[in-house]
Amino acid sequence: MEVGICKQDMLQKKKNAVLVDGVILNGPIMDSKAGEKFVEEACKIIMEEVIQKANDVTEKVCEWRAPETLKKILDLEMRDTGESHQKLLQLCQDVIQYSVKTSHPRFFNQLYAGIDYYSLVARFITEALNPSVYTYEVSPVFLLVEETVIKKMIEFIGWEEGDGIFNPGGSVSNMYAMNLARYKFCPEIKEKGLSSLPRLVLFTSEECHYSMKKAASFLGIGTENVYFIKTDERGKMIPEELEKQVQRARKEGSAPFLVCATAGTTVLGAFDPLDEIADICEKHGLWLHVDASWGGSALISRKHCRLLHGIHRADSVAWNPHKMLLAGIQCCALLVKDNSGLLKKCYSAKAAYLFQQDKFYDVSYDTGDKSIQCSRRPDAFKFWLMWKALGTTGLEERVNRALALARYLVEEIKKREGFQLLLEPEYANVCFWYIPPSLRKMEDGPEFWQKLHEVAPIIKERMMKKGSMMLGYQPHRGKVNFFRQVVISPQKDSG
Amino acid sequence: MEVGICKQDMLQKKKNAVLVDGVILNGPIMDSKAGEKFVEEACKIIMEEVIQKANDVTEKVCEWRAPETLKKILDLEMRDTGESHQKLLQLCQDVIQYSVKTSHPRFFNQLYAGIDYYSLVARFITEALNPSVYTYEVSPVFLLVEETVIKKMIEFIGWEEGDGIFNPGGSVSNMYAMNLARYKFCPEIKEKGLSSLPRLVLFTSEECHYSMKKAASFLGIGTENVYFIKTDERGKMIPEELEKQVQRARKEGSAPFLVCATAGTTVLGAFDPLDEIADICEKHGLWLHVDASWGGSALISRKHCRLLHGIHRADSVAWNPHKMLLAGIQCCALLVKDNSGLLKKCYSAKAAYLFQQDKFYDVSYDTGDKSIQCSRRPDAFKFWLMWKALGTTGLEERVNRALALARYLVEEIKKREGFQLLLEPEYANVCFWYIPPSLRKMEDGPEFWQKLHEVAPIIKERMMKKGSMMLGYQPHRGKVNFFRQVVISPQKDSG
Q: What positions are modified (N6-(pyridoxal phosphate)lysine) (chains A, B) (predicted)?
């Protein structure tokens, strides 16, 4: 190691430079003025190319390129030497140009859409401040904000008290709940693991989100130990079937511990009958988790909250404000009714380097040990700023409008030739087939359905290549490919 | 349900409004011009209050307020009606003022610091575009970028091929690896779970990150089945001890499946001897995972990559470019040597609504089923843009500089009265005690150490209340509270 004063001829500008191991230490290595200018110029591009165009229906929703073509267009390779600011700004332009505009009024491909300016500002602040939410000392504002938002969400669920945490996705929230229910069922699992235990079994509907299977596999429970409960023709869990399956599991000698109900299924937007399911859970002493990732936002609407009637009886709820409420990817809360510190007991590892107990403030504000993550983003903050800006009334309007738009769309589909509704929607998911003229006179039968199955992918391809619209489709439980449209963007103009 | 043309007197501005369920559907509900203006004004605040002040050592690193005081200052409550833009901008100011400035030159509290302008721009683009990375159709650019970045990181590890995924945190990457190793060991676990299996056992050092315990508990393995291997005085795993523990586990009839080595421990910055550990893993047929969340960035430096000698023999590696390389919270890759699709086989749930097989493009680009998440952020993108901007050489300089600064700091500590080094650092973690004048003449003994233990929290409190510096401290393996300083900010001026 060499530490010393560098020779005059090595110093271009700075006297008394400190040289260690070939590195001149004093003086920043970054040109911060140039960096700031670069940020300013890039922000201008973002404002013009993304934010101001978000409302413009004449823009393309996507500029489709096949993977091999796009690879050639984008200069993806990372090299030994860096690029000029000019080149980098062009790269930013290209990234924007060939990315899908999820805030475009014709983006209906997922269960989120649109742009919320307040959430966006909160996200810019987050990125600039670059916080990590685990201890009060490094994230004082964001931890208090998270606490406030969780408390408010709990009010809407209808619990008197509770706890919660924001997670990177509803899938992760569902995993948390599954693990929490398991811990409550048998706290020794945390230390002992599952190997000597009876087979744990959980119940969820056939229409549940695929994260249930992922969670069961990840947590070591196994997908075969997820008992899928039959649903009715609208996609709602049949309580009598649940009762039967719980009894079957008991007879098999396995250990039922959890029912996951869904409030707003992914494809059909169905709501499981929570009150009746809660009765069964109570009777059998099972944890009730409600995956309201998609449907939870209806709780904000006095008109539509009845869809989740009985949710106050749940032990835990997953709810993603990044979907219908437009809080931005990702904003996902897991709410827990327990207020005895179960979340912390279940998840804590008590790392001494992070959660010191001899701090000068009340360390109960250090909530990082409720999480499976170490560094964690302050996702509650964007929801909070948006809520402050719009008020509960503004959020409520957003929900009411999405559901009114769905009803409008349903009426239009009924009126128009060649469109056929899959079923009368309960929520914002409008599922329908488009039957092209060539099939309209065809007899109902396997051939018709086979041909219809091929229609949605072709239309989707055409729309994407044109850049006119993005719309999800899927086959589902014996039904051939149909479109699923959800209209949640506040930019949407149906007139 | 009522769908109809609304009466003239209800229409202030718009004729032929469509009214459904009390909601006027045509016309956006947002004033987008006002929204854009709000974003512009907020961006100005962010630029002035966060970005331009990042380099200013005369600013406070934090404006400390106790939780109860801060609650009173911030108007946290969310109300029925929204706030004015003026009020909201003031709120943004307050959020910034009372948040810790993690990019401040005197922020040494965690293993990340500083600001990188290119990564920041990429993050602003991400937030504006609001993508979710699961299918090529919705995230074409970001998926190609992720593929490119993973390939490049794999090159630095020294594998000829491989696979990978970006996760929300190194803890999550470690969990992925643990589950992947388990799946490789016994693929039926995915369906069957752990209940009928022998006790699975994994090995990691006493100095490993706490996420190992969290992962073992979450995955149903149990923390008791994590066998902690003794380390030497520098914090490095002792290979002979590992060998002994593997044999002990075999004798007990349990099933060893995984060794987690650490490259850059959290507190001491120690690197486990990967080559010797790899020999043992090979001999016993165990998966070798290297948690290089902190130390992985040294791979970029030709001078320091020897710290990870042998890493090419690992089966998986966790590496967080958001730490020493400044890519922004969070940017965490799990890299996997297997190239036979193990990641997808282990994690897939094949949701038909998302991963349709009849798409018009090559669906092997739809990599979302490699993940436990559904919606996922494009964290590779910020690393990519930064890499494009700085080149490999620029990233290398960042690492070399951090390590040179550590050596400089060590020399200074040795020179200055009242400072005592805990040990000669191997990496960037400089661990030391500050011995106040009152203790300098005291005899070495329990009373001295007890008093010294109380020093760091008091100094930290004083520095935070003054806003002059943030520095981590902890007790560690019998050693009383000491400071851990890591200097990685490119803004840092040591002169």
A: 323
Residue-wise pLDDT for B139-150, tens only, equals 999 999 999 999
Contact A489, A105 (CB under 8 A): yes
Q: What is the torsion angle, in degrees rounded to the nearest 10, for the CA atoms of residue A56, residue A58, residue A59 and residue A64?
A: 140
Q: Which of B46, B30, B42 is nearest to B88 (CA)?
A: B42
> How many Å apart are CA B89 and CA B83, to the nearest integer?
10
Tokens of A174: 């569902």
Query: B164 has which bridge partners?
Result: B335
Contact A240/A198 with Cβ under 8 angstroms? no
Residue A366 identity: D
Please list every residue in chain B whose beta carbon sits closer than 8 Å to the beta carbon of residue A196.
199
On whether ipTM exceeds 0.90, the answer is yes
pLDDT reported for residue A1: 40
Q: Distance (Å, rounded) from C-alpha B367 to C-alpha B145?
A: 12
Closest by CA to B105, choosing from B65, B61, B70, is B61
CA B30 to chain centre: 36
- The closest alpha carbon to A317, from A345, A343, A336, belongs to A336
pLDDT single digits (tens) A452-477: 999 999 999 999 999 999 999 999 99
User: What's the Cα-to-Cα distance from A195 to each of A198, B182, B228, B444, rounded to whole Å?
Assistant: 8, 13, 20, 49
Other beta carbons within 10 Å of A337: 21
Rg of chain B, C-alpha, whole Å: 26
d(CA A1, CA A148): 52
Q: Are B355 and B363 in contact (CB under 8 A)?
A: yes
Domain boundaries, chain B: 1-27, 121-387
The string of pLDDT tens digits covering residues B73-83 is 999 999 999 99
A-B contacts (CB, under 8 Å)? 583
Encoded tokens for A102: 């999820």
- Interchain CB distance below 8 Å, A80 and B223: no
Cβ <8 Å between B360 and A460: yes
Residue A99 three-state SS = coil
Q: Do B18 and A372 touch (CB under 8 A)?
A: no
A54/A48 Cα distance (integer angstroms)? 10
A162 SS3 class:
coil
What's the CATH code, domain B121-387?
3.40.640.10
Chain A: give the shortest CA distance to residue B368, in Å: 12
